[in-house]
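Lecture 7, part B: from sequences to assemblies.

Below are the input chains for today's worked example.
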Amino acid sequence: MSLIDWRDEFSVGVDPVDHEHRELIGLINGLDAAMGRGAEHAVVVEALGEIYARIAAHFALEEKVMRDARYAAYASHKQDHEVLLDELSDVIDSVDADGHYDREDLSRTLDRWFSDHFRTHDARLHRELS
Amino acid sequence: MNRIVQALLYAAFAAVVGYFSLSPDYRYGDPDLATIKVSLSHATNRVEACVNLTPRQINERAMRGEPLAECPRERLPLTVELDIDGMRVLHTTAAPSGLWNDGPSSVYERLSVDPGTRTVTVRLRDSARSDGWDYEYSERVTLVAGRYFTITFRAESGGFAFR
Amino acid sequence: MAPIKRAMARAFNGVEGIFEYAFGQRNNPFVWLGALGWYFYWIVAASGVYLYIFFDTGITAAYASVEYMTRDQWYAAGIMRSLHRYASDALVIVVVLHLFREFAFDRLRGRRFFAWLTGVPLLAFIYVCGISGYWLVWDQLAQYIALATSEWLDTLPLFGEPIANNFLDNTALGGRFFTLMVFIHIFGPLFMLLLMWVHVQRHSQARVNPPRGLAAGTLLALLVLSLVYPAVSQPPADLDVIPAELGFDWFYLIAYPLLDVIPGGRLWLYLFAVFAVLAVLPWVPPAKRLPAARVNLDNCNGCTRCFDDCPFGAITMVPRTDGLAYDAQPLVNADNCTSCGICVGSCPTATPFRRAGPLRPGIELPHRTIAELRDEVVDATGRCAGRVRVVVFACDTSATDGLESDDTAIVRLPCAGMLPPSFVDFTLKRGHADGVMIAGCAEGDCHHRLGNGWTADRMARRRDPYLRRRVDTRRLLLSWLPAGAARRRRSAMSRFRATLGGLDDE
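Predicted structure of the full complex, as structure tokens:
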């Protein structure tokens, strides 16, 4: 039973972007499952680092797509990207510093973020692009 | 940022540009001297005369569509001499131009001389002779300070021209 | 060769100090020499167009038309004429300074040879255009130039009959030769424009426009000069008269007096030798070949940030080859890559956070990897002791003499632009250091052209990748200084430490 299930509203209608959405959801679900199996703290930190790098690249690609399409709400969408990256950095640092992780808390946070962002900004982007 | 120093630097830049665009003067000619320019371009005689072909050889050539004469192209060098009041001021030899040495030979010289009324003698050799000259000309002329005196040569017009 | 360049660089730094004081670092004319060259070219071209309207081609008409412009229409055509002359002279000044400067700061070797090599024929063209311009006035200076140039050209085995014969006396000169000169003076500069375009081909976002302040200032200076000291003609040409005293434009005619003491043939030899030496300088001595940037497709989605940031156009985007769902991937042209690492600094996956696999970003320098950089930062700061620990990310060109101490770690990069902003975040937020200094070249004078500008923009959150908002930028100092300014950097460090000490007390 995975943390985040793919929903159509996660799709932006651009293949590379959607591919990355699936990949990211896969990474998050994988992390959630690993935590459920009692993964070591270091493994969780590394998984978070991987997610951070992938998400940073994903946002960069998505922003390129938005710029090319002269998307009107580019500025606010990009701002949300930066906020997410800020918050993810904070999470990584606190998990690393604490020496242990709270599965419930972490999973809930990741779920909320991505589902929220996908559901609002990305869905709107999908509407604009089609 | 300092606008005053900026202005000074701009002024210095403009001053350097302005000054060196016209100064210091360059002294090219000496106003007390005259200049003789010798400029000739002349095709000398060929080194070898045309080969004497037998009538039969000429006939064969005509049938093959070849030129009817066989004339080696190479020319002799050109020798030019210039005297002023009997004193030798120039003696030069010019090779023919062109890849096969078959073009005209050129002589171009500039000589600064004292002004005044002088006898100018110029000589040219364009044949294979070992002594003597093919063309020679002498004239008493007035050389003016600050002006050019040109000596040219046109075989068709009969020889040298002074100006 | 290196000691010569060092000495020249020191000389430039000395002179530029005054200009930096007067103009500020960003508008220092010495970092805009190439752009000023372009700018003066446009002034010359525009004024030339105006002059051409009133210029009459013809042996006597030419002089008369120029006199009309200078005297009767002094307020317009006259000013244009002066501007035309003075801007051309200014062009020679900035171009010569430009070539000396690029040589002194070693910006011509290795994969950067292209701009230098294409500059060599450009230099020759500037002179051909300028000299042919003076010919058109057909005053005594033009007469001298015609005589000297044709006699000089006659020492080359190019012509069957000496072209100096055209200027033998007043009967010899034909209008046809005059038309040839006009042709050269118009099409020479047009071809030169093509050469100028080629000259900047391998520079992305080539700086061909000087900043507005410099543009206005130089134009004003030349205009004032044109009003105060108008360009005038000398007495009309008369081929029967020997030109004696001539007002000389030394910028363009500097080699001509040599013809009085050196035979023309030998002077050609010297000239060719000079140009030959200039042409081979990029390979004397050959630059050390560093590996070009390498793309890691597993970590690359074709976001194009590296493509956008490369200063030498070494990256192009090509269709994807690994079958993943992305449209494009970057392709590095090893012939153009100067191994500056600016692309690495732009890559979103170039983060120091530990990952499941090896720390490999989408693009990196094989000889200076992100993994290496991370370890070095951790090690170097780990060895720091003291209350206020500072790490200096210094580019290879910047001076760090005297910064070494127990509480300072120095990490060198080929260019400040190689530093991913996430490293600044990592260093400060993980407590590896209390302050970060990024040391690079003076503004506008990045050795790799765009590195320090991009870095400043990334840290100010104007250019991707943005520095994380949570980073306290009071703990980040960007130190952009000329290459030899070690003392100024030490002062900056002292002031920075004082600021950091105050922050810790908060």
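Note for the exam: The two ends of chain C are 52 Å apart (CA to CA). Keep this in mind when comparing with the next example.
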